[in-house]
Amino acid sequence: MAAAIGVAEAALLMREMIENEAQLILVSAVFAVGFLCLTLPTGLFLGRVAKKAAVKR
Predict the structure, then answer these.
(1) What is the DSSP letter of 56?
(2) Cα 29 vs. chain centroid, distance in angstroms?
(3) What span, in angstroms and rounded, lies between the C-alpha atoms of 43 and 31?
(4) Does residue 55 sit in helix, strand or coil?
(5) Residue 21: predicted pLDDT
(6) Residue 37 in 3-state DSSP?
(7) Per-residue 3-state assignment (H helix, E strand, C coil) for 5-16
(8) CA–CA gap between residue 54 and residue 57 (Å, rounded)
(9) pLDDT digits over 4-26, tens only?
(10) Is 14 exposed, middle or buried (0-12, 13-18, 19+ CB in 10 A)?
């Protein structure tokens, strides 16, 4: 639920910034870097947790 609200809010903010500033590449790049900063560490952390919690056969 929170992710859906965050995506909608980010899309609205991005649309307003593009309309007002007309710098599509810069605005898109900032949002892409922000997305990577949020998802990459989470994915790495959860990958390590999954390896440690895996059942050994």
Answers:
(1) P
(2) 12
(3) 18
(4) coil
(5) 73
(6) helix
(7) HHHHHHHHHHHH
(8) 9
(9) 667 778 778 878 877 777 777 88
(10) middle
pLDDT at 53: 86
Written as six digits, the tokens of 30 are 């900032």
- Position 28, amino acid: S
Which residue is it, tokens 């980010």?
10
Looking at this protein, which amino acid is placed at residue 43? G
Q: In which residue are the tokens 């639920």 written? A: 1
Reported confidence tier of residue 48, pLDDT bands at 50, 70, 90 = very high
Tokens 């949020």 locate to 38
> How confident is the model at residue 57, as a pLDDT?
59
Q: What value, to the nearest 5°, has the Cα angle with vertex 36 and ends 49 and 46?
A: 5
User: What tokens were used for 4?
Assistant: 């859906």
